Model the fold of this input.
Amino acid sequence: MNEYARPVFSGVRGVVRSHDMGDQPTWDSGERFHPVGAVAQALIEHVDREYDVVIDAPVALPPTHARGLGHDVSRIVRISSGRSGEVTVWLAFGAAPGVISVFAGLFSQFDMWFCGCDMCDETWQGVADALEEVFLLLARGGVAESLEPGRSGRARWSLTSSSMDWSGVMPLKGVRRLQQRHWGEQLSQLADGRWSGWTPRLQSRDHVEEDHASEHQGTPSL
Done:
């Protein structure tokens, strides 16, 4: 399997501060975060090449994920394998540059939030780092989800082998009992409630045979 490599960008504007505004932050157009969208697209193309997945776009978010969406959306991409137990992931591209949310499984959500005001030292590289880590961890190892039923029940999710604490909690208040029961049935079929990552894509037999033949092309007979 080939490793993911971030695209190379040039001419991207850094943080620009307005020193005559005192303590009042001003808001730029977000142009400096534009590369994040290209990084997201590069990740999609990477898993499409390296994993046995299907890319669907445009699609709608499932109702549970849509309820947790906190920004306007320009495009939603779904990555799935069709294999039982393997995670399904949605990338929601925001209308503003660099705004990305990642949804996975039944209720897992990972937001790549950033302030965007010109008083902050946030960079597009920091947002891209977070996006790449979450997305590639999902691709390789999936996500663990669990339910804590009851009057004050909660849904939990987490990634492992991460340099950050990528986990979250969602109150079950407002989620119908039928839906909770359906989630519980699905999670009970998974080992420790974990959706696995995707199966690596194998080279086709024809491609392997072509490579083998090319290695011997032009070899003189004895």
Remarks:
- The first strand starts at residue 54 and ends at 56.
- Residues 29-197 form one domain.
- Residues 15-21, 204-209 have pLDDT under 50 and may be disordered.
